[in-house]
Design a protein that fits this description.
- The chain has ten helices and no strands.
- The chain has two domains: 123 residues, no CATH class; 104 residues.
- The protein starts with 10 loop residues before the first helix and ends with a helix.
- Helix content is 76%, strand content 0%.
- The longest helix is centred in the last third of the chain and has 40 residues.
- With 241 residues, the chain is an all-alpha fold.
Length: 241
């Protein structure tokens, strides 16, 4: 991406920008700067024609370019675009939203599916949504968690009833405290049994059965892996559980 005559700026303009117009007086500097602004403004208008330029032509455009030089040039272009955006007082999200709308409304833009115009906040929201979806408990996980919470509160209530009985010397048989205590105990046993049943079923489905299938399908690999990396196999089983 070196100096070329057929470019946005002339060879002379590029040279004068590099030396900061040191060889010109104030009047000529103003004149050249005005010409540069005009050329850049016209160049920006030309991008509306390049939006729907064929992919093949864009591929040929960068075919012989050094990847690092091309990356540097695109990075510089991005910086200039950001500086122009800031000078216009446009928000980045507004600019990207406008570009996104134009891509969505135009049917003649090649490679439109490969254009990524998401903002940082959109990317963050998508990542958070994916993370939430991946870690969201399933139906039986939610039921198991509900049983754990119910069992915990039931156990706490049992302890409170038992403490009151011990404090005032009441018996858990034949007193007004016996019915709530044994009722709470029944609920606690139900919760513990349900939770164990769900966990055992999930362990059977996700750990035991796949392990048995793996042993039947590839016995040597499974046994060798368990012998060579026992802790890794245990940790994997625990994570699955």
């Amino acid at each position: 991406m070196g100096d070329r005559t057929a470019s946005l700026l002339t060879k002379t303009q590029r040279r004068r920008i590099r030396n900061e117009f040191a060889d010109l007086d104030e009047e000529k500097t103003f004149r050249d700067q005005q010409r540069i602004r005009s050329r850049v403004r016209s160049g920006l208008s030309d991008f509306s024609l390049l939006v729907a330029y064929p992919d093949r032509q864009l591929a040929l455009l960068v075919e012989d370019e050094d990847p690092q030089s091309l990356c540097d040039a695109l990075a510089d272009t991005t910086i200039v675009v950001e500086r122009l955006r800031a000078q216009c007082g446009l928000e980045r999200a507004e600019l990207l939203e406008t570009a996104h709308d134009r891509v969505g409304q135009a049917d003649d833009i090649p490679g439109r599916d490969e254009i990524d115009l998401r903002t940082v906040s959109e990317i963050r929201r998508e990542i958070e949504a994916e993370h939430t979806a991946e870690n969201e408990p399933g139906r039986w996980d939610r039921r198991a968690n509900g049983l754990v919470k119910l069992g915990t509160w039931t156990f706490v209530c049992m302890l409170l009833v038992y403490a009151v009985c011990m404090l005032f010397g009441f018996s858990l048989r034949g007193t007004p405290f016996s019915l709530p205590y044994w009722g709470l105990l029944s609920i606690f046993v139900f919760c513990a049994t349900g939770w164990l049943a769900i966990v055992a079923t999930q362990a059977l489905k996700h750990t035991v059965i796949p392990t048995i299938v793996g042993l039947c399908t590839h016995p040597r690999e499974q046994i060798a892996n368990a012998i060579i990396h026992p802790w890794s196999a245990i940790r994997s089983s625990w994570e699955e559980l």
